[in-house]
Amino acid sequence: MPGPAPAPVLGSVAERMRACDARWPAADGMAVFNRVYLTVTEELARRVAGGHFPDRLAAGTLGAVFAERYLAVAESGGDAPRPPASWRPLLQYRGHPGVRPLQFALAGINAHIGYDLPLAVVDTCRALGCAPPALEDGFERVGDLLVLLEERVREDLMPGPDLLQVADPLTHLVGAWSLERAREGAWSAARLLWGMRELPGLAGEFAERLDAGVGLVGRCLLTPCR
Q: Is 0.85 topped by the overall pTM?
C-alpha cells in the first residue's frame, strides 16, 4: 500500500523557489531556470497529491530530495566555497548579455538532470531503504513531465523570426542537447553509484567525474549567441 505523499515537503520546496525568484532580477540566468523548475515542482506536487503516482511516498520523496540539491546551490547564491562543477557555468554566466534565456534554462536542466538526479536517486533509496528499481516507475513519470516542460521551454524561449540571425546558431546549439539522453544517462549513473555504495572512494571519484562532464556540457550550452 503506497504511503502518504509528502505534499507539505514539496510545498515548502516551492516556497523556497519563490523566495529565490523574488531576490533575483528576472533576466538572471539562475532566475530563468528557477521559474522553469518552479513550474515542474508545482505540477509534481499536484500529481503526487492527485494519485498520479502508484507509490506517492517514493515519488514525493524523490522530488523533494532532488529539489534540495538544486536549492543548496541556489540559496548559497553561488557563494559556497566550491559549488558543483555542473552548476558553475550557469553561476558564472548568469548575467552574460550574450546568452539567451533558452540557454540558461537548458543549462540548468542539464546540471540538475545530469548530476543532481543520479545522486538524488541514491539518496532517496537510502532514505526509503530500497534499491533503484523500486523508484523506476516514479523516475520515468517525473521524466515524462520534464519532457513536456522542455518542449514548452523551447517553444516559449526560442527567439522569434525577427531574430533569425540569432536563432539560427542558437537552434544548432540547443538542438545538440537531448533531455531524453540526459535522463537515460542519469538513470544509468544512479544504478552505477548504487552498485558502488560499498566502495565510497570509487563512488566519490565517479561522482566527481560525472559532475565535471555535466559541467562541460553546460559550458557549451552557454556559448554566447548574440
A: yes
